Every structure is written in C-alpha cells, then in structure tokens.
Amino acid sequence: xxxxxxxxxxxxxxxxxxxxxxxxxxxxxxxxxxxxxxxxxxxxxxxxxxxxxxxxxxxxxxxxxxxxxxxxxxxxxxxxxxxxxxxxxxxxxxxxxxxxxxxxxxxxxxxxxxxxxxxxxxxxxx
Length: 126
What we know:
Layout: H1 5-19, H2 23-26, E1 34-37, E2 48-51, H3 53-66, E3 67-79, E4 83-94, E5 100-112, E6 115-118
C-alpha cells in the first residue's frame, strides 16, 4: 500500500512554511491546481482563491514570510482513495509582531496521480 497524498503534502507544506524549503512541495502540486483559503483578508492578504501552481507557491511563500508553525493537531480526518478532509488546530507566531495566533482549520484536498489538484466537489464522497 502506498502512502496517501495527504501525508506527503502535509510534511512538505510544513517544511515549506517553517524552513522555506519549497522544492518538495512544488513536486506535489498540479499545474492547474485550485486553491482557496477563506478568512479575514484584512489580516492576511494572502487569503482568497488562486489558480495554478505558481500562484499557490507564491501564497505559501507569503505564509512563510508572515507566520511560523509551532504546533498542529489533527482533531479528525477522513481519507478517501484520492481525497482527504481534516479538522486541525494550529499554534502559530506572527513574525512581524512575535504574537501568538491560534486557529482552527478545515482542510479539504483532492489528489490525482499523487498531486494536489483541488478541494473535492460538492456531492463527491471521500
């Protein structure tokens, strides 16, 4: 049995943010990826929808320039063959002010041939 795409993506994502090592992450993202982070754009201008690998890599670069991940806990997770959903809590630090940030995130992902493509479509089951 091969490793689920979520685990590879998760490790590479956190390495990209905390260590600014984007190489492994770039290899796991489809060229036509759809990406969205919903939240207060006035606080985090990199939130919003993006299309394409270059745009997603730029968002991740901006995240890495603004926060450091200290801890994350997966509260729940559902894995399908090529899809995943998880509820997570993150403890971060804002790099400009050194202030702690705590967030709870719902993460939805779809993979094709091991690459992140887009969140699962409504009505699609994991």
